Amino acid sequence: MIRRRRFVLAGLISSIDVVIADTLAPTRGGALKVVHIATLVPGQPGCNTVPAGDAFRRGLTDLGYDPLAGVDSRCVIDYSDLPRLVAEMLGSKPALFAVWALPQTVRAVRQAAPTIPIVFVDVPDPVQLGFVESLSHPGGYSTGISNVSHDLIAKRVQLLREALPHSSRLAVLGNLANPLQADYLRATREAALTLHLEPRTYAVQETSDLPRAFAAMRQDDMETVVLLPDAWFYPRRAEIIGLAQRHRIPAMYTNLGYPALGGLFTYAADLIDMSYRAAAYVDKILRGAKPADIPVQQPTAFDFVINARSAREIGLIVPPSVMLQASQVIE
């Protein structure tokens, strides 16, 4: 049973062919125009069959578009495969790229096609990454909806501290090959020390590193673990959740795709809301607006999800004060 204050699910989008009406409210018999939108997202094959994809398509429909069959789905689990995937998709001459969560994809598309419009969703720190000049005036050919801030990172640590008030040691799991991780790690450590938690970093770069990292956490008597923001973790979330449960280490996750697989705690921006709003960016660009002139938005809705079933499996009693903060509880 799932108890919730408001309905939130998470997921990512696939490539999609859309048919665009000549007007926002096409008249009977009016001509329709096919425009190809290429999209790359992190995940295993089949990653497009998720609720956020429905939100994106619903956003297009509400703006007068009529999505049709003809999906060209590209799911990314290996960053080294990005140049090939991008080159293949560019061969079909898409009108624009929509990119979910992966800065590496934005960079790969931009390197392969410097002037093609890009709409990004759930991509962190676009200014720091050099994708836009500023949030209010992006410049160039990229815009969209950003994610991840130091406040969001600090809130995850705070919720863990409240859920385990007697804990003193926090494991930080990060893929330090990601150039943004150093900044996220610094923010996490600052938040932990402020809350009188001793942080210790466990670095991973390959899937095979994960079992060793969790075994080391158990050996070091780590009492909680928080993941640093990185889409690299998303396709590997089932294994990460399983390892955390097996070693009985309460974990805080960064994406709303984790709770349904057993993730204990998740605090994250509402990806469905962001995906729905992404359709407006696509609409504006296809109607002639320049990405350079469309301000980057930030998340406006956040959710704290507790998997009470997973808590019981490791013998954790979550304080009522923390349960009351949850927007969704999975029983």
Automatic annotation (TrEMBL):
<protein>
    <submittedName>
        <fullName>ABC transporter substrate-binding protein</fullName>
    </submittedName>
</protein>
<dbReference type="InterPro" id="IPR007487">
    <property type="entry name" value="ABC_transpt-TYRBP-like"/>
</dbReference>
<dbReference type="Pfam" id="PF04392">
    <property type="entry name" value="ABC_sub_bind"/>
</dbReference>
